[in-house]
Specification:
The protein is mainly alpha-helical. About 70% of the residues lie in helices and about 0% in strands. The protein is built from nine helices and two strands; from the N terminus they run E-E-H-H-H-H-H-H-H-H-H. Helix 6 crosses helix 8. The longest helix is centred in the middle third of the chain and has 37 residues. About 30% of the residues are buried.
């Protein structure tokens, strides 16, 4: 039996925002030997919400303080999503994968880990900007003194955070996917997937992330089919809508371009 590893080709495409990303649809199909579907779901969802929010803020002109508060809540929800996502990757996924295939240690810890650290540092800037805007209740709408300065800084930092997320995902996918397909059996991949799913269920961001995943399903046929196979119909049609009404739909309504 041959031990030759199969070359894994990952195609680079451009996002709507002009960032490099990997074409992942092929790895969601039945014939794929990549079984860590949640890994792909999370990345697609995170890119989706960042893209939606950036697009919204390009033309965001609040007419009231509640609209500004909604923007703050949207940014905080996304950054909490990434904080939890990066933590779970480093503390659970990476450790498990490195145990199975030690060759993953060097590229993950020297390439992707510094990107995570950079994102955290820049996100601290974002937290300060949002706190300042929260504290300054004199900023009530687009015409208030201080609004233009605040939103300009927020959009600039958001672009930096978005760029790092796209780059870290791009590099991580190219490091992990080929090694997993060639070196880690389905049973081990499924074991990690189950562990990550259980951890994610208990995370404070779980329903928001789920909402983002289902939002992507509306325009991504391969993801939609993959999710339908993984999650029972009754859960998707009955339980999910009730959970998402409070925890994600508000975000979808906020980022809608009107």
């Amino acid at each position: 039996m041959s031990n030759t590893k199969t070359p894994i080709e990952i195609i680079t495409i451009k996002s709507e925002d002009g960032y490099d990303e990997n074409e992942l649809s092929i790895f969601l199909k039945n014939e794929s030997d990549f079984h860590m579907n949640g890994f792909i779901w999370g990345h697609l969802a995170a890119r989706h919400v960042y893209s939606k929010l950036n697009m919204k803020l390009k033309s965001f002109e609040p007419k009231s303080r509640p609209e500004i508060n909604e923007m703050i809540k949207a940014i905080q929800s996304i950054t909490e999503f990434i904080e939890v996502h990066y933590h779970h990757e480093e503390e659970i996924a990476w450790k498990f994968l490195i145990e199975q295939q030690p060759s993953l240690s060097e590229p993950l810890l020297t390439t992707v880990k510094p990107q995570h650290t950079q994102w955290i540092e820049i996100n601290n800037e974002m937290k300060q900007l949002l706190q300042s805007l929260t504290d300054n209740q004199e900023i009530k709408d687009k015409s208030s003194n201080g609004w233009k300065e605040s939103i300009t800084k927020i959009k600039d930092v958001l672009q930096k955070l978005t760029s790092i997320v796209y780059k870290s995902f791009y590099d991580e996918e190219r490091i992990i996917i080929p090694v997993v397909i060639n070196s880690i059996p389905k049973s081990k991949q499924n074991k990690l997937g189950e562990k990550m799913n259980e951890t994610m269920k208990n995370a404070p961001t779980s329903k928001f992330v789920l909402g983002a995943i289902l939002d992507v399903c509306k325009t991504n046929k391969d993801l939609d089919e993959n999710v339908k196979k993984a999650i029972p119909w009754a859960v998707r049609k009955v339980i999910f809508p009730l959970a998402l009404e409070k925890n994600y739909n508000w975000f979808s309504e906020f980022v809608e371009i009107k």
